[in-house]
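Run log, item B.
One chain of 76 residues. Sequence copied directly from the ordering sheet:
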Amino acid sequence: MQLDGELIKKDGHDYLMKALELPDYYGKNLDALYDCLCEIEADIVIVNAGAVDKDIIDTFKDAALENDFLKLKMFP
């Protein structure tokens, strides 16, 4: 699955909710994102990662460390 950092920057949690098919109860905050990422199985590639807020990138990285079924790659 490929995510576009420019769209994450522009539409934030709304974009992530749609792109990652997060549940309707997703809280649209970093804690909720971390919780959801820790529960999914996915290979995620973030292109234009330089456009993404550091806190969001850190949330993806932390979740990937916690979840063996979440693989993460990022490209500038």
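Observations after the first pass:
- The two ends are 16 Å apart (CA to CA).
- Residues 12 and 32 are 13 Å apart (CA to CA).
Flagged for discussion on Thursday.
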